Amino acid sequence: MHAANTALKRYNPKVGLIKSWNKKKSWDGKTTWQYPVIIDNMLNLEMLCYVSDITGDPKFRNVAISHATKTMQNHFRPDHSTYHVVDYDENGKAIHRQTNQGYADNSTWARGQAWAIYGFTMMYKETKKKEFLETAKAAASFYMNHKNLPKDKIPYWDFNAQQEGYKSDLDFAYLKLDYIPRDASAAAIVASALVYLSTFTTGKESRSYLDFAKSTLKTLSGPAYFANYGTNGGFLLKHSVGSIPHNSEIDVPLAYADYYYLEGLTRLSELK
User: Fold this and answer.
1) Taking residues 33-44, what's their average pLDDT?
2) What does pTM read for this prediction?
3) Distance between CA atoms of 149 and 78, rounded to whole angstroms?
């Protein structure tokens, strides 16, 4: 309840979204974000709905619905890929669409897409609003069917890293990486979301989500990604990425990779 009330202090009803960060500059060195909202914040909305349930106060759920609705309208491209950051003016108009942790403003940061799939799946669970389900399915389709998704279903940290037509505002050469890192955390988030999404759909569509989730979790449970006992700093999964643009947590274990991996396995075990 305290966390939910704190989150609402970041909410401007005129904008209709919870503000992610205070005013800050983008990587291009020219743009200053006034009211930046990141796709990651879709993950805060389930908590707000829960607090409405336990308090009987609808204001938290109403903010969650508003945030999800405006995110649905402004964070997605026509192909259902996502922008990481959308900046708004004081009237709630989207004025900048860029990235902070992805490769380029027009690229698709893998974990950002994962947050979208998961967040809209959970908002459908909480509200039963069909538009949230359709958004989750569209975001999942982009991810699952992307030509650059490796066969083992563990994505590169950005679907478009180092590809023609995608120009970063940063020079990554100084990192001297001779490979494109994978992001096991994105894979784990998507797998957990798809187990749930399979329960909101039927037939072939439901099976496709469940099969994809099972295949991903199986890969993450194999030697390429699952650490030997006593190694990896005590973490379960290897090969995640925090933020390559910030030169932070590159090809390392991450707490949320382990969390969503375990959640996905738990959800799978609970299916009837």
Assistant:
1) 98
2) 0.98
3) 19
